Amino acid sequence: MTATQTAPPAPAAERTHPRWWAAALSGLVAGAVTVGLAELLAAVLTVTGLAGGQPSPVISVGDAFVDRTPGPLKDFAVRTFGENDKLVLLGSIGLVLVVLALAAGIAAGRRLVVGLGLVLLLGLVAVGAIMTRPSASPLDVVPTVIGTAAGLWTLRWLIERATPTTSDDGSAAGWSRRTFLGSAGAAGAAAVVAGGAGHVLESSLGSVEDSRAKVRLPKAAEPVTVPKDVQLPIKGITPWQTDPATFYRVDTALRLPQITTEEWSLKVHGKVGKELTIDYRTLVAKPLVERLITLTCVSNEVGGKLLGNAVWLGYPVKDLLADLEVDPGADMVLSTSQDGMTISTPLENLTKNRDALLAVAMNGEPLPVQHGFPVRMVVPGLYGYVSATKWVTDLKVTRFADDEAYWTPRGYSAKAPIKFSSRIDVPKGFAQLKAGKNAIAGVAWAQAVGVAKVQVRVDRGSWQDARLAGAPSKNTWVQWVYEWDAEPGSHTLECRLVDADGNEQVESKHGIRPDGSTGLDSKNVTVS
Ligand SMILES: Nc1nc2c(c(=O)[nH]1)N[C@H]1C(S)=C(S)[C@@H](COP(=O)(O)O)O[C@H]1N2
Ligand SMILES: [Mo]
């Protein structure tokens, strides 16, 4: 080879692959078509009542994710995002989907089968999630299968349009950007319309709010009256009775179960001589009782806000079980909700008195959907995850030795009485106060046992008794106040409770796992 020899002129560079941005856009649109169509069809299944479990691919993947979230990550999410944890999760799923759809598009631009394979794989993941949802039926996967098929077709079609064509003479490669964008735009618009229609269908035809509006609550056979002296006249103290609109919400439901009163029924079975299935009409025709009960979440850190107090109207579980010939060997009731949550409650907590309820109303209103409409359990003295089953549809009388609830293999105790605790609401942490009389006030709770005393100490001095407001029973929290004569300087305020059995609140700090937090609430303030 000599230096003068030149290579033949290179042929005009011919592109045979789509431009990367066109490929990426193809992927994005194909992803949107998949999800939009699947969500629309899933909504149709849901509103027509044909769905067995959860046919929505996005919600199912999210639910499956929640179920598999390692405990510490779940605790972190609840701590960091609070009640927005669900929005954050759905947003993250959306983001991951967008990234994967773009990747599928770019891959398809180089090698079509790889891109198609990626879309297919995503579809299969969603199908797997849907099939493993509680009470899933084969029909539930149909929307996702059709959506995925449409997505595959769209990807192939758009990649084809984005690929330059070669004329017969082997040169003059070209593609029409305008045709491609038109096609991508049309498919994208169709996807958005489908997804939007699905959303509208879900929310407007969701007859559950109509059903709730139609409920006429019966008069309580055993009404409660809220005593006058439960509320202290102190600005900033937590209201004694919690408004359902601000009542804390904790559950794993990404989409709230939609159960009308006509659809609802409860099956009681297991270790009983007689099984029972009861519908809503029959339940509310029974003599219902009212109880004032403060609900508490095991995830409540010391000083936290995951508790609330309400009047619950319901039928005592004890009365329900009375005629069913419960096997003396049974020691637990496993309750299951429509969305597949399982909760284990010691049988004795349901039968030792008539305070454990199948509740239908909260503060005189039918249960809000997010608090368990149409029927939930409420049991005084036990954390919510072992007692307060929302959307409850099944009670199995069983034994702890034979059955396990949702949270038990996830790092929480099978049995969990509420650890009594107290909280300072006033003053707020780091408040700047004026020297002289200042109220230190808050709430304290020892459900099922009762609050005997609340005490306050300043700068780790001696414990001083606070004044307690009224309480109708041991099952509710109680407000307290201590008149503090504040001197200038920086101070640390702490409170503790002594229960009716004489036990003092545990001072040593402990996190929420496995059965609830301990420690003292404290506030640092400056007085001038
Ligand atoms: N179906 C169902 N019921 C449930 C839960 C749930 O995740 N799903 N969470 C429980 C927990 S952990 C608590 S603390 C209470 C909270 O009830 P609330 O949201 O009405 O305050 O509901 C309990 N019932
Ligand atoms: Mo909870």
UniProtKB/TrEMBL annotation:
The chain crosses the membrane at residues 20-47, 87-106, 112-132, 139-159. Residues 504-528 are annotated as: Disordered. Residues 519-528 have a biased composition (Polar residues). Gene3D superfamilies: 2.60.40.650, Oxidoreductase, molybdopterin-binding domain (3.90.420.10). It holds the Pfam family Oxidored_molyb. Residues 255-403 form the Oxidoreductase molybdopterin-binding domain. Signal peptide: none annotated. It comes from the Bacteria. Keywords: Membrane, Transmembrane, Transmembrane helix. This is Molybdopterin-dependent oxidoreductase. It comes from Angustibacter luteus.
